[in-house]
Amino acid sequence: MPLKKYRPVTPSRRFMVLSAFEEISRTRPEKSLVEPLSKTGGRNNHGHITSRRRGGGHKRQYRLIDWKRDKMNVPGIVRSIEYDPNRSARIALIQYRDGEKRYILHPVGLMVGDAVLSGKGRGIPVKPGNAMPLRDVPPGSDVHNVEMRPGSGAQIARSAGSSVQVAAKEGDFSHIKMPSGEVRLIHLDCMATIGKVGNLDHENISSGKAGRSRWLGKRPKVRGVAMNPVDHPMGGGEGKSSGGRHPCSPWGQKSKGLKTRKKKKGSDRYIVKKRK
Predict the structure, then answer these.
(1) Are 130 and 191 in contact (CB under 8 A)?
(2) Which domain holds residue 34?
(3) How far apart are CA 30 and CA 19, in angstroms?
(4) Bias category Basic residues: which stretches (predicted)?
């Protein structure tokens, strides 16, 4: 996906690098596949801020994505490739032979007019956009939109440019290699989509100005060392200080190196190799 660089006619344009949106073929979403999306501003049901630095942003509608790909053995045609403000990836509008329309994540190489298919068995072609159980995916293939439990809907490899690799198959499980290097066991009946999620250049985008973050609903971040002692453990001091202690959150939790992952009962048994 090409990027667009701007001439430095203003300070904000100097470092701005944005998507060219050349792959987008339709500007308005399918009305039957959108829902209202309300904002929380980072507040919970009591009105207390539970996620800092959220608020504002442009109004959005939520696009209903087909995470399960359970429209089995019904051919579909890609009608359009669209921008989705709720995720980094693009989405593709699929119209099936029976007339039903659904959104899927747009993989690399899928074009308007291409055919996609979901199903079980060896008869499903192994090409980008087609969905099948891990049981039918050849070892070494790159897949995305992977379920963690059969029928639960995809949870793995959904952001722009991401994919996981089917490393091997053993018994009822497949060895899935994550981008982090972790190798995890996932049941062979879980659905996965062939290929890599599109919009590969998303990681190279540079906003160029603070206002663009505000349009996305992201509020400013203030460093702890710039605060007063009453506001942050690293605040205060004469002149510019380094905080005087290990970096931490406003509530004292260390922010570098502290392991915060909770060990749920039985979850580690599915990890064959831990991430680097």
Answers:
(1) no
(2) 3-203
(3) 22
(4) 45-59, 211-222, 256-266
